[in-house]
Amino acid sequence: MKVVVLVKQVPDTYEKRQISLDTGMLVREASENVVDEIDERVCAVAAELKNNGTATEVVSVTMGPAGADKAIRKVLALAADRAVHIVDDALAGSDMVQTARVLAAAVSDADLVLSGAASTDGAGGMVPAMMAEMLGRPHIVAADSLEIADGTVTAVANTEAEKLTLSAPTPAIVSLTEKAGEPKLPNFKAIREAKKKDITVTTAQELGLAAGPDAAYVRNVMVSAAERPPREAGVKVSGDTAATELVDFLATRHLI
Q: Secondary structure of the chain: what % helix, strand, coil (to 5)?
């Protein structure tokens, strides 16, 4: 079984993030870019499928700038046998639909596609579902765990109301939550071997697509943006009139 892991390089969640006031997009150069944490957990699931013999090959697929190769090497050290890196200036600023089109073309021969439930930068969570629609494959959403046997993938998803056990025939797409796997730090041997593994660099055109913002049927255009104003100190009340002041404050704001 060929298993594909979708990987995204994102700004470090522990650093400050910035939005460009000119484009309305995330300024990725403002902080260190790393493998999305949820993707590391997905890699842990893929590594387990490889270790137990279910996966004969694990392939990492990334759509991103040339600088994403550092993140790809980490994934190669964690789980993947090889990687596909889609690098194309025309794809910069792609929405979820255009992203799904490109990724769907890149994973069309996979038996199982694994992804995180949502990235930590965009948090859209719809790309796997869009890919499934485009490829005509079943999609299991927000799985906390999964098992594969006899050409069927079975996953457990927990909702606010109940625990669901969902099954689908392969080829299929499964998006996983942060509960699905526990990431491990790659050892020195894995890091060294990752440097020798193959990364295939391709473009949308080589995948047979005209994709990106200019190819979108509709697109959002930012017309204005401004920085969030600094926080101002709150109103303080004290002394004998504190209770009255507090009541007046709440009343003028229709809170009581």
A: 30, 25, 45
